[in-house]
Amino acid sequence: MATKFVLPKEIICNTILRVTYHDTDQMGVVYYSNYLIWFEIGRVEFLRRCGSNYKDIEKGGIALPVKHCSCDYFKSACYDDIVRIETLLKELTGASIAFKYNIYLYPGGSHIASGETKHVFISTDGKIQRAGKRFYDIFAGCNEEVIIKCREPLANVNFL
After folding, report:
1. 68 SS3 class
2. Of 25, 56, 72, 80, which residue is the catalytic one?
3. 125 flagged as catalytic
4. What's the number of domains the chain is made of?
5. Domain for residue 4, yes or no?
6. From CA 134, how far away is CA 137, in angstroms rounded?
7. pLDDT tens digit at each of 160 positions of the chain
8. Furthest-apart CA pair in the chain: how many Å?
9. Which of 72, 73, 77, 108 could form a disulfide bond with 30, CB atoms 3.0-4.6 angstroms apart?
């Protein structure tokens, strides 16, 4: 049975970005696979705002390859739209971590997509690692101030 870590509080991180021309397809809407890139942007900011980052995680000998991803599309985003990526931790076990994402037009809030990614913890030589406790400690250590700041939309300066 996999060890599941239950966090004492829900952490939701909001990231804002602007749709750039290269995000769109010939029809002028965001190309479907770019939503997965936006999930990554949300996940990276989630980790950063909780006091961690991929660079340090990888320096510690852990990688987080995607095991599963899904995305449901409800409405199109177009060039120059501003979107809000809501990222939350869905599940944390000894050997994996899963995130849930919702993407909204901003401001206004039209829900345009939602999805999930699941990642496994592996060592640099590709073997499964039990790193869930390490991540639990990072997230459980988030105080109310961090949680409130995570909920405030953060503009991704590379995209605005």
Report:
1. strand
2. 25
3. no
4. 1
5. no
6. 5
7. 567 777 767 888 999 999 999 999 999 999 999 999 999 999 999 998 888 889 999 999 999 999 999 999 999 999 999 999 999 999 999 899 999 999 999 988 899 999 999 999 999 899 999 987 888 888 877 766 666 666 666 665 444 4
8. 48
9. 77
